[in-house]
Design a protein that fits this description.
The complex is a heterotrimer of chains A (286), B (265) and C (278).
Chain A: E1 3-12, E2 20-30, E3 35-39, H1 46-52, E4 61-66, E5 69-72, H2 81-86, E6 87-90, H3 103-113, H4 118-131, H5 148-160, E7 166-170, H6 178-195, E8 198-203, H7 206-212, E9 215-220, E10 223-228, H8 230-234, H9 237-242, H10 249-261, H11 272-285
Parallel strand pairs in A: 3-8, 3-9, 6-7, 7-8
Antiparallel strand pairs in A: 1-2, 1-4, 4-5, 9-10
Helix pairs in contact in A: 3-4, 3-5, 4-5
Chain B: H1 16-19, H2 22-36, H3 42-59, H4 63-69, H5 71-87, E1 93-97, E2 100-103, H6 104-130, H7 133-143, H8 154-184, H9 194-200, H10 202-225, H11 244-263
Antiparallel strand pairs in B: 1-2
Helix pairs in contact in B: 2-6, 2-7, 2-11, 3-6, 3-11, 5-6, 7-8, 8-10
Chain C: E1 3-12, E2 22-30, E3 34-38, H1 45-52, E4 60-65, E5 68-69, H2 75-81, E6 82-85, H3 98-108, H4 113-126, H5 142-154, E7 160-164, H6 172-189, E8 192-197, H7 200-204, E9 208-213, E10 216-221, H8 223-228, H9 230-235, H10 242-252, H11 264-276
Parallel strand pairs in C: 3-8, 3-9, 6-7, 7-8
Antiparallel strand pairs in C: 1-2, 1-4, 4-5, 9-10
Helix pairs in contact in C: 3-4, 3-5, 4-5, 5-6
The chains are: A alpha/beta (286), B mainly alpha (265), C alpha/beta (278).
Amino acid sequence: MDIKLREVEYRYAAGTPFERLAITEVSFDIPSGGYTAIIGHTGSGKSTVLQHLNVLLKPLKGEIQIGSRTIAAGRKEKNLKEIRRRVGIVFQFPEHQLFEETVEKDICFGPVNFGVSEGEAKERAREALALVGLPEHVLERSPFDLSGGQMRRVAVAGVLAMQPEVLVLDEPTAGLDPRGRHDMMEMFASLQKEKGMTCVLVTHSMEDAARYADRIVMMHKGRVYKTGTPCEIFSDGPDLTAIGLDVPETVRFQRLFEEKLGRPLGHLCLTPEELAREISRLRGES
Amino acid sequence: MMEKMILGRYLPADSVVHRMDPRAKLLFIFGFVLIVFLANNFFTYALLGVFTLIVILLARVKIQFLIAGLKPVIIIILFTFFLHVFFTKEGDILAQIGFLSIYKGGVIKGIFIALRFFLLILVTSLLTLTTPPISVTDGIESLFGPLKKVKVPVHELALMMSISLRFIPTLLDETDKIMKAQMARGADFTSGSLSNRVKAVIPLLVPLFVSAFKRAEELAVAMEARGYKGGEGRTKYRLLAWHMRDTLALLFLIGLAAALFALRS
Amino acid sequence: METVIAIEKVSFQYPNQTSFALQNISLHVEKGEWLAIVGHNGSGKSTLAKMLNGLHYPQTGNVTIGGLILSEENVWLIREKLGMVFQNPDNQFVGTTVQDDVAFGLENAGVEQAEMKERVLSALEKVGMAAFLNQEPHHLSGGQKQRVAIASVIALRPDIILLDEATSMLDPSGREEVMETIRELKEKEGLTVISITHDLEEAAKADRVIVLNEGNLYTEGTPREIFQMDKDLLKLGLGVPFSVQLSQLLADEGLLLTQRHFNEEELVREIWTLNFAK
């Protein structure tokens, strides 16, 4: 399911003295089956864009196409549930949304709201829990007795159990320790690769964007600053730093190495593994 | 949804009203609440209206914002209006709809009561619009200071108030976030039968409570780490200063009270 | 060197838990040093942080801070010597505005109003937040709130500042901003800094690193020494800084390297001299 944003504008507290322009003239596409990263400084409008993807916010100008539905500014929209089932959002610190007595009930909350039978929802809860790497006995426990990292996984399972076609992730690893961060990012990547799920990642981590995404949308001051492949985006270091973003560590190191080498490497390496291979290959040649 | 509410919000600006001592403003509001009840005819209400308008102008708050922000309260005002229209049986009958009869006295009374309510809310929201919440708290703490002698925990109450004020925006943000997160999981807060809607708030309330308790706990630890052990031996960072304008404002109010007395029927 | 904190054979167990949160931990902190305590979630590092501020007391062993043995009698004196910055930027912001928040601790200490004004302003200047005196917390970024929290601590003039995962909820620029502030304060004010963290970039800035694992002191050393054991760190659920990670990957590819490099320039130089320059 493709998502297309066309000239989208949104203002918070529109028509009050507290009015604030959040995003304007935002247009970009999220192709089905791809992994799109939205990067930008805090306050660049990333989170506002994200909430439009399942119509938690409706554009004040412009329109959004979500699959075959078009959400246009100024129109009353009914029956948004179908969209929300197909576009799942994992918010930042999703463990804050847990509320049920047991992990199982909490994971079932989404599926049941979308009309899935109880039996089927429980089946899905089991599957989702396995996907996030938690043992089955956790199902009967209270989510509030779990550790922070486990709560995060349960909350993610709650969204996965909805079996969305598009998975939108807002800083899903914020506050996790390095191992937790790595495991979770790998899980999303495998969902995208193996199950063909469309992933949209909102992140501050240029490393994650470089490693996982195949398309990048750069936001700055409420507008789309640039879109492109990771290679296109990250090869222009000065452009990134101009809007307060970092160059991925790998790219920074590659540049340093190229300086020493006196010539550029054949292509831009996006992960340390790739860079290590490239340097090793070069050594073989020389 | 709640972002349009202006009740309880502070709108920073520089005006005479903004600069007033919060104690003066509190006394002023208290006095105003009392004398609003003196009005009982066209002239007295007109005088109150003009007076309120002057205060709004002095505070440099745009009237459109006030009106837009008071929309949620207008429903309550209309409700009281109709209550009086339908249930006060005074004066001539103006209209008869089925078993309901509408009396002239009822309409007049309805208008007056609604107006009184409206003016009260206008002036009290002016207090919060022009005074940082912390100053309101300081004012209250200072005005109620003498009660410490009779063992009323004035300091603790004031601190509680200021902390609640501090956390209102945080909790509103949080409510919004959790609501959206649950809506993304298919929760519906706006439609369905009443019992369904009550059920629908549970996924909102439980996380809110959990987080509020967590915040309270962490805040208590942070306060202790910074040496908070009660009001004993504490100094105050914010000192209040009473100026001529504060005295004048109260005199102005007394003048109004006298005029209302003279004009009421 | 003067020891400002001495932890001697401390153990601690939470009620209803079978394992120890801290088990026979001994460590010293020297005046003016920056010590990072790292460990994955549940390694005991938060328990240790709480103990340094008298929120928990050791069940066996002693904690001595600035010459005082931690006990319920002198916990308030200890809190004057050791200031804490916590994880959640919102839940430690007590005041309704920036200046009220910094003043809160001073009010508690009974400082005179005129002096308070001065100390609030100078503390805010030191963290670069003096322009935000009347700003309300919900208009500040996470990094700014944490800098205010740091100002609130230094306004009280403690000898030691303890950062309890103070950057873990921040975005990269917020993290950078807070770390830079701390680095400056340590240099100019001679503060002793203890940072409890799982952020390796943060740990890499320290003079000394202590690794905790399951309530035990796993190892300690300079960041350079610690990051030599990259594979062990990964096993403990910790990451390693980029250049260390790349050193490892290059070594796996068969490149010649003398060590796990801690610094990118150094690594580039060594790749070059040992593998390319002929």
